[in-house]
Write a structure and sequence with these properties.
globular, 5-stranded mixed β-barrel, 6 strands, 193 residues, single chain, alpha+beta, 5 helices, Archaeosine Trna-guanine Transglycosylase, Chain: A, domain 4
Length: 193
């Protein structure tokens, strides 16, 4: 399958919400096409040294602003993980021949709930107490990154895994290591820097 690709210095993954300010001509055209035709595009991680061959398709969820010069502020949401088999450039846009990875299957509650519990404890430890029902209803590992900022390398590592169980194991160790550092948290549930 062919997919228009947007290389960025960030990692997109299923359920992740990403605000974007689109200002380059080629990407203004691409985004307007995607909005008008209700099409997805792909975000792949790229920095000054490397470009990932794993990415995530995204859909435009909201248009915040359209400027007179064509710039646009949007919110996109991650959908499906893909692997880039080959890429070409057409009209200065990267087009990937991609293969979607298998859909994420939720873990059984016996395996997922202890991880969800650590996620909630982490949110409470940093003083987040609003809309907890939203967080208690999460069912996939990627959803547990919603309020957690991690490095691009860490997110890319999770994206490359084709197993919810393996992602859960990594997140379990990650959440546990943060929660063990109780000296970082204030007695009132806030975070001290």
């Amino acid at each position: 399958m062919k997919l228009k690709l947007f290389p960025l210095n960030l990692v997109a993954f299923p359920s992740k919400l990403i605000p974007l300010h689109i200002f380059e001509e080629r990407y203004k055209k691409m985004i307007n096409y995607c909005i008008n035709e209700k099409k997805d595009f792909g975000i792949i991680y790229q920095n000054t040294k490397t470009q990932s061959n794993i990415g995530c398709s995204v859909s435009v969820e909201k248009i915040y602003n359209k400027y007179s010069d064509g710039r646009i502020d949007i919110l996109v949401k991650g959908k499906k993980i893909f692997k880039v088999q080959k890429q070409t450039f057409i009209d200065n846009l990267m087009i990937g021949d991609i293969v979607f990875m298998s859909d994420l299957e939720p873990l059984n509650t016996e395996n997922f709930n202890p991880l969800l519990d650590k996620y909630i404890k982490l949110l409470l430890a940093v003083g987040f107490k609003e809309n907890l029902d939203h967080h208690l209803n999460k069912t996939l590992t990627f959803e547990l990154l919603e309020m957690i900022q991690t490095s691009n390398d860490f997110e890319l590592e999770l994206l490359r895994l084709n197993s919810e169980q393996k992602r859960a194991e990594i997140l379990d160790r990650f959440f546990s290591s943060i929660l063990k550092q109780s000296d970082l948290f204030k007695p009132d549930g806030g975070y001290q820097s």
